Amino acid sequence: MSPLPVLLDCDPGIDDALAIAYLVAEHRAGRIDLTGVVCTAGNVGLEDTVANALAWLDLAGAPAIPVAAGAPGPIAVPHVLTPETHGPRGAGHAELTTTRAVDARDGARLWVELARAHPGELVGIVTGPSSSLARAVALDPALPGLLARLVVMGGTFRGHPGNTTPVSEWNVDVDPEAADRICRVWEDARAADTAVVAPLWCGLNLTERAVWTPERSRVLLAAADTPLTRALVDALRFYFEFHESVGEGYLAQVHDPLVAWLALHPGSEVSEPAHVRVECTGEYTRGMTVADVRGQRGRVENAAIAIDVLVPGGPDAILDEICAAISSLAASPGWPDRVGRPG
Ligand code: BDR
Ligand code: CA
User: Fold this and answer.
1) pTM flag (> 0.90)
2) What is the DSSP letter of 279?
3) What SUPFAM superfamilies does the record point to (predicted)?
4) What DSSP character marks residue 45?
């Protein structure tokens, strides 16, 4: 059986970096085919998300996959940067460099081309704002029907508080119009064809349970002391400091690798179907993901909302697996013979 084709759309970002390293590990182990990476402005500006993605792929020894620059900012509002969360360049205390080149295609174009190259097979993972994906569905409205599934880190559900405003999660808050466009497009696609799979929305209600501790960083370094793990640990130290500064303790909620893992393990989540829209106008509620789980709107379900994981040990056990996958990179054949060479 050929490995599962996967596209990651990300905004690295410290927890995005863990997702990248994990996906490269799965690729090198032959379990997935990481067909491309789209970078979107989010945690930092587009230039930095691209440079960081290239550098993390380099450090992880990824093959020469296309990495494309997507949306440079949100649809309707200026892009507001928050360097206190992921550091001024998006990599915390890690210093990244790369010689890997960016693909000439626009990120939205890469979404479309990879979906068309793997009709019904591609797994799309979004760990940043939906701005590039919103452009991709404008470019090719057939996109929802071409994907095997879409897994999004975004929003917050079931009354769980936001991390950006009291009701909004960062990725959605950056570009609510884009996230809402995704909801509308999948609603239309599913109204026309019930075979189209509703995206899995993984919100803070679940992802905040993925907690990376200093002890886990020690375990990672003890298992594999490499340029990749040292850079991840340096980046994570900044993320610990950020979480401590907002009263969460000296730890880090690592949303994105959990979502990447869920994307590769369909059926490992507990979810509920819903009709989701994103509030784009409310003075106090902009960026809120509003889920109708009772069918009160009478609309086609356009989302599955992740509620829990069906894994003994929960998100912590999943992080154990991710940690092991990343440390196994050092032992994978050809590593660290990297810098853009097919692996
Ligand atoms: C999301 O926001 C970003 O800061 C993280 O990378 C994650 O994707 C969590 O709200
Ligand atoms: Ca992210």
Assistant:
1) yes
2) -
3) Nucleoside hydrolase
4) -
Q: Give the mutation target among 157, 255, 259, 289 for probing the ligand 1 site: most ligand atoms within 8 A of CB.
A: 255
Alpha carbon 137 to its chain centroid, in Å, reads 18
Q: Taken in order 82, 84, 87, 91, is the CA torsion positive or negative?
A: negative
Helices (H) and strands (E) in the chain, counts: 13, 11
Question: Other C-beta atoms within 10 Å of 297: how many?
Answer: 11
Q: Within the chain, what is the greatest distance between any pair of CA atoms?
A: 55
Q: Tell me which residue of 218, 219, 206, 302 sits closest to 257, measured CA to CA.
A: 206
Give the pLDDT confidence of 301-319 residue by residue, as tens digits.
999 999 999 999 999 999 9
**Ligand 1 pocket, 16 CB below 6 A?**
yes
Encode pLDDT of 251-302 as tens digits. Answer: 999 999 999 999 999 999 999 999 999 999 999 999 999 999 999 999 999 9
Query: Which atom of ligand 1 is least distant from the CA of 164?
Result: 10
Q: How far is CA 211 from CA 11, 235, 247, 339, in A?
A: 19, 15, 14, 31
Ligand minimally distant from the alpha carbon of residue 10: 2
Radius of gyration of the chain (CA): 18
Q: What distance in angstroms lies between residue 257's CA and the mean position of ligand 2's atoms? A: 9
**Identity of the residue numbered 16:** D
Residue 259 CA: nearest ligand 1 atom is 8
What is the CA(290)–ligand 1 centre distance, in A?
19
